[in-house]
Amino acid sequence: MNTLNLSDNPSILSPLLTDLYEFTMAYTYFKENRHEDVAYFDMFVRRIPDQGGYMIFNGLNQLIKQIQNYAFSLEDIDYLRNNGFQDETFLDYLLHLKLGVDLWSVEEGVPVFANEPLVTVRGTLLQTQLIETLLLVCVNYATLVTTKASRIVYAARGKNVIEFGIRRAQGIDASVEGARGAYIAGAVGTSNTLAGKLYGVPVSGTMAHSYIQLHDNEYDAFLKYVKIQPEASVLLVDTYDTLHSGVPNAIKVAHDYLIPNGHRLKGIRLDSGDLAYLSKKARILLDEAGLHDCRIIASNSLDESIIDDLILQDAKIDAFGVGENLITSSSQAVLGGVYKVVAYEKDEEIVPTIKISENIEKITNPGFKKLIRFYDNDSGKALGDLIALADEVIPLDEYVLFDPIAHWKKKTISNYSYKQLQVPVFVNGQLVYHVKDTETTRAFCKAQFATLWDEVKRLRNPHNYYVDLSQKLWDMKNDMIERNKKA
C-alpha cells in the first residue's frame, strides 16, 4: 500500500508549520527555566459540525508523520534568527530538539462526540506547546471532511458516492487528504488520481463537456470515445439537451457499436437540471432500449440534503458524484478543535488545571483522563461514553451515567462491555502504534459506525448521544470551579 511521503515536500513537513506564538511561548518557558516541566494537553471539539449527531475522527496518520519527522534544519534556525529570535542558546536547543512526547489518540474512523478528549499529549512544556498547531491542522480538517463525507454516504442509503472535489479543494494537501477521508467514510472512490496513487483509493472519471463540444456533433463524440475506451463507457449526456439529444445518442451508440462488439453502455452522467425528473425519464428511455444495466450517475453541487431529497423523490440515480460541498465541507467549513492544558506534574504528582469561562461550553474538563465507550452486550450498539480520570476503575456489572450539565438526569446501564477509545501512539517519542492502511481503516470505520443507533445518525435533529463525566471527575471539576470563584 502506498503512503504519502511528506518528506518530498519540505514546506509541508516542517516544524515551522505552526503559529508564531508557539515559538514566543516556548522561548518564554525556556527563559523561565520551565521548558522541561511536564504538562498534559487535550485536543477536543466543542461543537459537532452541521448540528449533526456525531463526528468521524481522522488525521492521526498525518500527525504521526509530522511527529516522526519533527526536526529543525539549519535553514529553519536561520529563519527564526532573522525573525526576532536572537538567543543562540535557545536556537541551539531547538536545533538539537528530539520530540519525546507521550501521545494517546482515538483511532481513525471512530465516531466521536463533542468535548471528548480525542488526542492527549504528555511532555515537556516546550514540546507540548510547539506541536499544538501541527496537531490541530492535522486533525481538524481531516475530521471535518470525513464527517461530512459520512453524512453524505449515509444520505445516499447504500447508493455509491464518488468524491469529485479536487478542483474545488482549498489546496493540494486538502484535495488529497479530503479524498482519503471520504473513502474512509464510505465513498467508493475519487476522481483524484494522486490520492489513488498515494493512498490506494479507487479512482474513476467520465468526460467533460469540452470533449463533446470539440467534435462535430454529440453522437460522433460519444462514438469516438467508446471506440477508444469501450470499458469506460460512461457518457455525459447534458451538454445540449439531456432527454432529446444526450440520452438518445448514448442509446444509439450502445446499439450501433458497443453491443455489436461485445460491450455494454456502462452509464450516463447527469450534471445539470432537475436531477430527479431527468433521471426518471432517462431510466424509462434506457429500459425501453434494453439497457437495464446502464447506471445513472448524478453530479452538480450535491450535498447530503440534496441527496436525501432525491432519494425521497424516488430519483432513479445509482451513484452520486459529490465535489465542492464535500471537499470544502461548505455548510460548515471549520471544525473548532482546540488544544488545552489539563494538568501538569509537580513533585511526581499530577496536578489538574481548569479553564473557567462565562460560556459553559468553554469550561474545560481537568486532569489526566481516559475516554470509555460502553456497548450493549446483546445488540452491540454503543450505549454512551464516559470521560473519567486515568486511574479510575470502571466496574463491569453496572454503571450510572448522568448528564454533566443537568446532572439530575441519570441512566443506569448493565449487561455491557466497554472499550478505552484512546490508544497509545507515542511513548517517549517512539511510535508504538501500528498504522493501518487505508482499506483497513475504511473497514474499521464501517464497523464502528454500525455501532451507533440510527437515531444518532439522523441528518436533522439527531438524538443526543450520552457523553458523561465520572462522578470523581465531575466532583473535581466543580470543586475547582468553586475554589476559583473564591480566589
Description:
This protein has 487 residues and is of the alpha/beta class. Among the domains are: 6-146 and 333-362 and 422-457, nicotinate phosphoribosyltransferase, CATH 3.20.140; 214-316, Aldolase class I (TIM Barrel, Alpha-Beta Barrel). 37% of the residues lie in helices and 21% in strands. The chain has 17 helices and 21 strands. Strands 13-12-1-5-3-19-20 form a 7-stranded antiparallel β-sheet. Strands 7-6-11-10-9-8 form a 6-stranded parallel β-sheet. Strands 18-14-15-21 form a 4-stranded mixed β-sheet. It starts with 19 loop residues before the first helix and ends with a helix.
Fold blueprint:
Elements (H helix, E strand, L loop, with lengths): L19 H12 L6 E8 L9 E2 L3 H9 L5 H8 L6 H8 L6 E5 L4 E2 L6 E6 H6 L1 H24 L4 E4 L8 H13 L4 E2 L2 H7 L9 H5 L4 H11 L5 E3 L5 H17 L8 E4 L4 H14 L6 E4 L5 H9 L6 E4 L1 H4 L9 E10 L2 E4 L16 E8 L5 E8 L8 E5 L7 E5 L1 E5 L1 E6 L2 E2 L6 H12 L4 H4 L9 E3 L1 H16 L1
Parallel strand pairs: 6-7, 6-11, 8-9, 9-10, 10-11, 15-21
Antiparallel strand pairs: 1-5, 1-12, 2-4, 3-5, 3-19, 12-13, 14-15, 14-18, 16-17, 19-20
